[in-house]
Design brief:
Blueprint (H helix, E strand, L loop, with lengths): L51 E5 L5 H9 L4 E6 L2 H13 L5 E5 L2 H8 L5 E7 L17 H10 E11 L2 H14 L15 E4 L16 H8 L5 E7 L2
Parallel strand pairs: 1-2, 1-4, 2-3, 4-5
Antiparallel strand pairs: 5-7, 6-7
The structure holds S-adenosylmethionine (SAM).
S-adenosylmethionine binds next to β2, α3 and α6.
Amino acid sequence: MSFGLGRGRALEPGAIGVGPEEMPPLPDDLLANPLGARLNPRAWFPDPSRPFEIEIGSGKGTLLLAQSAAQPATNFLGIEWAGEFYAYAADRLRRAGVANARMLHADATEFLRWRCPDAIVRVIHLYFSDPWPKSRHHKKRVVQDSFLCDAWRVLEAGGELRVVTDHDELWAWDMEHFARWCGTGPTPGHAGATPAFDLLAFEAPATAGADELVGTNFERKFRAEGRGFHACVLRKRG
Ligand SMILES: C[S@@+](CC[C@H](N)C(=O)[O-])C[C@H]1O[C@@H](n2cnc3c(N)ncnc32)[C@H](O)[C@@H]1O
């Protein structure tokens, strides 16, 4: 399949794109059998034994391109639900000859919930997630108690959810949720001990530029506009 956004050139995900043979449709009896769609995304890589990291909302794939080169012994899965950005990022990784990063065209929250087995992910990257500012759209934000429940489940012990945003109101929402999951109060749906996570300061990866937190497209665009940023890490206790 080819896509637009290529400025006159068709975008080709090629082998970087996860195909339907690797992720078949959800079964009809999913609600009766909620574990029935689980699969092993680590097997989508030539060496499934390597550490596995997921980026939610990869946009144009800038972080994946940099991180997959800097950490060649780690497997990266970018999940992007916007078809043209999915294809743009996959095409970019394919043309760069990357062997340790792949792209999935899906809703990342659904992927974690229905497809991911327990304790297989070392890092979940969530950078400049859509803020959905209207109250009636808040349910579309990635960070929800149900998402944190799934993130905790799929992370290895000591695994991390890394978050950066420019959006003050989204940050307040995130922190309200993180406070629950990093404290001893009730954490809806959580089966493990509390606190579920430790809340830590964010450390920039080596691939970020001198004044950058992560070096994604949105960070560069917002930095040029003079915006401020918020960032943190939730580390799974284990
Ligand atoms: C504001 S952009 C940020 C892109 C990139 N992370 C960056 O920093 O440049 C947010 C991206 O997340 C994608 N996205 C939002 N919710 C998603 C979800 N639930 N699953 C997959 N992709 C999602 C959007 O389509 C969009 O490309």
